[in-house]
Amino acid sequence: MNTVPRFLFAPVLILAAAVMPIAAQADTVRIAVLAFQGSERAAQDFEPTLAHLNATLPQHHFELAALDPAGIELAVAEHTVDFVVTNPGDYVELEAGHGVTRLATLEARDHAVPTDTVGSTVITLNRPGHPTRFADLAGRRLAVVSPEAFGGWRVVWREMDQAGVPPERLQALVSTGFPMDTVITALREGRADAGVLRTCLLEEEIADGRVRPDEFAVVAEQPASGFPCRLSSRLYPDWPFARLAGTSPDLAKAVTAALLTMPPVDGRAWTAPQDYTGVHALFRELRIGPYAYLGHTTLGGILREHWPWFVFSALAVLWWIFHVVRVETLVRRRTAELTRAIEGREAAERAARQHREERDQFSRLGILGEMASNIAHELNQPLAAITNYAEGITRVIDAGRIDPAFIRNGARGIAGQAERAGVIIRRIRGFVRRREVQREQLDINDVVRETLAMFEGQARLRGVPLTVDLGEGLPPISADLIEIEQVLLNLLQNALDVMDGRPDKARGITVTTRRSVENTDSVEVAVRDHGTGLTPEVQAHLFDPFFTTKPQGLGLGLSICRTIVESHGGHLWATNEPDGGLSMCFALPILTEDIPS
Fold first, then answer.
1. Out of 341, 396, 495, 589, which could bridge 529 as a Cys pair, Cβ 3.0 to 4.6 Å?
2. Which H or E run includes 241?
3. Structure-derived torsion over alpha carbons of residues 284, 286, 290, 292, reported in degrees to the nearest 10
4. Which residue pairs, CB below 8 angstroms and at least 24 apart, start in 386-392?
5. Contacts of 295 (CB under 8 A, 6+ apart)
6. Positions of the chain with pLDDT lower than 50, given as ranges
7. Per-residue pLDDT tens digits for 33-42
8. How crowded is residue 585: how many other Cβ atoms within 10 Å of its Cβ?
9. What angle do CA 309, 311, 314 make, to 5 degrees?
10. Is the N-terminal amide bond of 5 cis, ω within 30° of 0?
11. What phi-psi label fits residue 103: left (phi over 0), alpha (psi between -120 and 50 degrees) or beta?
């Protein structure tokens, strides 16, 4: 099948469809083929397919029924055939009206896009002043084989409509009838000014000597890289091989498998069913065929009239997905192997994630161990206040001076200090407990404030002041609060250890937030100390696991911090300051969309 056949209407074809027996023999399978160029040419074009099916599936006997569009419509409606091969436009209408389902699509392997070969060519006599654009056809007569023809009219109708030349602007639409070469006759006889042919028919007529190479010009010719024929429209997927709704699923699967294994004949072969969305778009834009309801005036009428089609389409898509999975045995086997590999990788990722959670928890426990004196100091304050309130109330009661207002204020003071101690305990428990990572929308300034609330007591005990410089109007981030607090506490603890015991520790630690200068889609947090900075050797290994400059350190803190920051899509780095000291900085991407609930 080098090209898509021409129509050749013969009354005997329609008669043949009408007299087909309703129930064929059990082993006979009938395939209806649209006969563009007559029954003999259709039989010749599809003989390799028929022979391959009979050889591959010997338990069935496949027969070809070459029909015109009316014959195919009748055969499908009366279920006198099992499969149908037709052009994409007729297929879409059969799909909507009778529930046929495509199994495979023709492809031409000598084309740039093997499956996109159906289109239209608008021709006119090659004379001075002939039409060259669709706009030039306004007020002229256009010859078409039939108003219902797909490549012979509807494809061009869409192109002309988008070019601002709807059918109403033509002088007349001249129907010539089949075969399609009658369009050429109409132009030669002067009955039309331009005519519509399917793609490649002009080249066939020239090759057969029925048309001179310079006799006709193409109107609105479009470039088509890799396509061997001249055309005036976009291209659509080639003819589908489709099954009727009542055809046995097992037979459909066997036929599909046989088609997909059929070797090419003259560069033509069957391939996986293509997406006919472009054909649907054409019908939808023109409001014809299955989309004629778009011309209706009420939504309720559309839904009432076509609700079975919507339901059927959804079921057909689901069935087809299941069908393809069952037919593609090799794909199914490869998919199973891939699934096992993915499961193994996911198991490894879960183990790594659990290991990371345990490591992060140990890191947080280590940070709290270093902050133990600060925690004790924080708890001693509310406990001491509770003790003072209680002793004061006891003395008043022992002295016999019962003052309800005094006792009430004391009780309230005890309750307030107890709540303060509870907040400290809850904050510590929330920080150290094992938990799943929970991304949420956060204000980086709020994160810094909450972290400093846990840390400032320790800095105060060591006599190291904290300075905070929070940028204004910073966009939110998507992050895990506890993990970012862990990073900040680790950097603050390192800065405090460096400053402890230095004569210039009064210069303190500075925490800064700002919009990233290099990448405006990020916010940065910097922890600046006034210690000794980093030597080149230390800086080269700063983030290596188990590398530490502390006598009692494990060397995991900064490695964990970098892992946490990078898992959030950010990065962590260190910079020696010119006037002494070190800045530990990390950047986190800003939130660009809503956090899923």
1. 495
2. strand 240-243
3. 110
4. 386/414, 386/417, 386/418, 386/421, 389/413, 389/414, 389/417, 390/414
5. 287
6. 1-26, 377, 553, 595-597
7. 988 667 787 8
8. 18
9. 105
10. no
11. alpha
CB 411 within 8 A of CB 383: no
Question: Structure pTM?
Answer: 0.47
Give me the sheet containing 141-144, strands edge to edge: 172-175, 141-144, 194-198, 120-125, 216-219
Residues 535-586 pLDDT 10s? 888 777 677 765 566 655 455 678 778 888 988 899 999 989 888 889 999 9
For residue 11, how far is the Cα from the chain centroid?
50
**448, 563 Cβ separation under 8 angstroms:** no
Radius of gyration over every alpha carbon of the chain, rounded to an integer in angstroms: 40
- Please state the φ and ψ torsions of residue 323, each to the nearest 5 degrees: -65, -45
User: What is d(CA 566, CA 587) in angstroms, rounded to the nearest whole number?
Assistant: 9
In the block, residue with structure tokens 């010539």: 176
DSSP-based three-state secondary structure for 315: helix
**CA atoms of 283 and 293, how far apart (whole Å):** 11
Q: Alpha-carbon distance 92 to 150, whole Å?
A: 11
In terms of DSSP bridges, do strands 466-469 and 509-515 run parallel, antiparallel, or are they unpaired? parallel
Read off φ and ψ for residue 359, nearest 5 degrees: -65, -40
Find the helix or strand (DSSP H, E) in which 34 lies: strand 28-34
E-state strands within 452-548: 466-469, 477-480, 509-515, 522-528
Where would I find the H helices in 530-591?
536-540, 557-567
For residue 367, give the nearest of 261, 455, 256, 307 by alpha carbon. Answer: 455
3-class state of residue 238 by DSSP: coil
| Residue 424 backbone class (left: φ over 0; alpha: ψ -120 to 50; beta: rest) | alpha
**Residue 3 confidence (pLDDT):** 43
Going through 145-239 in order, the beta strands assigned E by DSSP cover 172-175, 194-198, 216-219, 236-237
107: alpha, beta or left? (left if phi > 0; alpha if psi -120 to 50):
beta
Give the span between the Cα atoms of 223 and 208, in whole angstroms.
25
SS3 content of the chain, % helix, strand, coil (to 5): 50, 15, 35
